[in-house]
Structures are given as structure tokens and as C-alpha cells.
């Protein structure tokens, strides 16, 4: 009887995740034009409409920290765009990996583990968020939206904000077994109100005190404050650290839930 020796090898933790990224990059480099709107152009259009259009009617004052309205909302729109992109790319695409295209099932039939599949999703999301933020920051430069070199850190703040939304949404998508109707509710009753009432367009101090606490729970408010702090200042170092800590905690909690959900759904 002939003995057959295995020629396979165990995939390292990081290598398995990067193999996922490589697969996504292979698709992206051929279809990147179709993602231009979500990868930077959407928040730029918001910036033009609100910063140049509506902003032309708003005078610099104490509310805007003495800045033009364009400069006031520019970092916040970057954070808002990152949050919207993160939720969008961790909802239907993640569910599709389990339910429709089932590429997650195909990948985990190889030595790649469910944790590595999720890790690849996170790495790719971080790269996409950073790319979108860089495109937005570059275009906004020609609008006169930035007041100093803090723009480089604004991109990082946007990525951190997006990742704080990515992991909870991925956990939610991994626990969804229907056709994803609930995602529409998330966009309508969570993402849009979060965008409008988390300090993006006006300080939350203008909100009624009875509902102001809802803004404090929003990852976008912390991301907006972080982005404004590194861009235009006016926020103390300890406050900045606190906002970052909240975003890190949301990311960690979402990661734990999503990691468990991926294993429960992919390991038979």
C-alpha cells in the first residue's frame, strides 16, 4: 500500500488574513472606478453643498471656533463619511459572504480559519477607509478646508471612527439569517440620525438636554471630536484621549462579538 504524504501546510494567522486582502485587491484593481462615489466623492459633495453652499450664509463665530463653516465641518464630514462607508461595507457584503456568494464558506474549506476571514475583512476595511479619507482630504485641500498639517491625522481619525463602526456592524451582519431587511432600518434610524445629530453640522450643545446623551453614545460624535481636535485644535489632550478610548472600546467589543459570530456560523 502506497503512503500518501500531505503537501499542504498550515497558514499562519496573519498570512491567512492577508490572503483575503489579496483576493479583494485583485477584484478592486479591476473595478475601482465603480467605487469612486463611495470612496471619497460622496463626502466631497456634502462638503461642497454644506461648506460652500449653506456655509456661505454662516458667519464665523464662537460656535465654529472662529473658523469658517467650511473649515468647521470639513473634518466632521470625513469622520461621517468613514462611518457610513464602514456600515455599508460591513452589512450586505458580509451577509453575502455567508448567504449569497458564500465566498466565506469556500475560503474556510481551505486552511484559512473564520478568524482569519474576519481579520482580512478588517484589514481591507482599514485600507479602504484610509484611501477614502486621503482622497477626501486631498480634494478638500483645494476648497481651503484645512488650516494646518493636522490634515494627516484627520485621515487617521476617520479610519479609527470607521473601524469602531465596522466591527459591531460585521457582528450584526454575521448574526443575520434573513435577506438583510434590518440593514435598511439601521441606515434609516441609526446611521442617518447619527450623521445629523452627532456634532457634524452643529455642536451637540444645541440639542435639547433630554436627548443630548444619545449623541454621547454615538461613535460618530467621538470621531467628530477627535477629527476636529487634530485638525483645528480647541480640544484638550485628555478629552482627545477619552474620545479615542471610547472608539477603541467599541472596536474591541465589536471585534469580540463578530469573531464569535464568524466562528459560530462557519464552523460546522
Cα-based radius of gyration, to the nearest Å: 20 Å
Low-confidence stretches: none
Which quaternary structure do these chains form? single chain
Termini Cα gap? 33 Å
Major β-sheet profile: none
Q: How many H/I helical runs?
A: 11
Which strand-content bin applies to the residues? under 5%
Number of strands: 0
What overall geometry do the principal axes of the alpha carbons give? globular
* Classification by helices and strands: mainly alpha
Quote the average pLDDT.
89
Series of H and E elements: HHHHHHHHHHH
Helix content: 55-70%
Family: Belongs to the ABC-2 integral membrane protein family.
Keywords: Antibiotic resistance, Cell membrane, Membrane, Transmembrane, Transmembrane helix, Transport
Subcellular location: Cell membrane; Membrane
Membrane topology: Multi-pass membrane protein
Q: What is this entry, summarized?
A:
InterPro entries: ABC2_TM, ABC2_TM_bact-type, ABC_2_transport, Nod_factor_ABC_transporter. This protein is mainly α and 268 residues long.
Descriptive account of the structure:
The chain is mainly α and 268 residues long. Helix content is 70%, strand content 0%. Helix 2 packs antiparallel against helix 3, helix 3 packs across helix 10 and helix 10 crosses helix 11. The mean pLDDT is 89. Keywords: Antibiotic resistance, Cell membrane, Membrane, Transmembrane, Transmembrane helix, Transport. Its main location: membrane. It is found in: Cell membrane; Membrane.
List the helices and strands and how they pair.
Elements: H1 13-31, H2 37-53, H3 69-89, H4 92-98, H5 103-107, H6 114-141, H7 151-174, H8 181-196, H9 212-217, H10 219-232, H11 237-266
Helix pairs in contact: 1-6, 2-3, 2-6, 3-6, 3-7, 3-10, 6-7, 6-11, 7-10, 7-11, 10-11
